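Data card: per-record layout.
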Amino acid sequence: MGLPTGAPRSLKRLWAYLEKHVANIEGGGGEAAPVAWADVTGKPATFPPVIGSTATTAMAGNTALLAIGTTASTAAAGNHTHAATAVTVAAGTAGLAAGNVQTQLQALATRIAALEAAAG
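The structure for this 120-residue chain is written out next.
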């Protein structure tokens, strides 16, 4: 099997490389077999992974890095909510002053009402 006439030179070089090297691989090295952790070379000596049994520990080290909670070092639950007064807006965002979302929504509502009244 070969390449079609007019194939790009880079494709021809790749094809020649593959034909040369794949033949060496096809001879095979036998069947694959499981390799024991102790037989793996070049691995970090201080990090043998342990896979946890829960969604939050199913990572190397078996530590609950995804602990659910309400602090800065924990993850929020998927069904959590935030009060509008607890979410802040940075100063200068869309021309708004710094404050919480509730305050900003009230300010925007006031501005909209004024614009609508002026438009008459």
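Known properties of this structure: The chain has a mean pLDDT of 74. The longest strand covers residues 88-89.

See the next section for split statistics.
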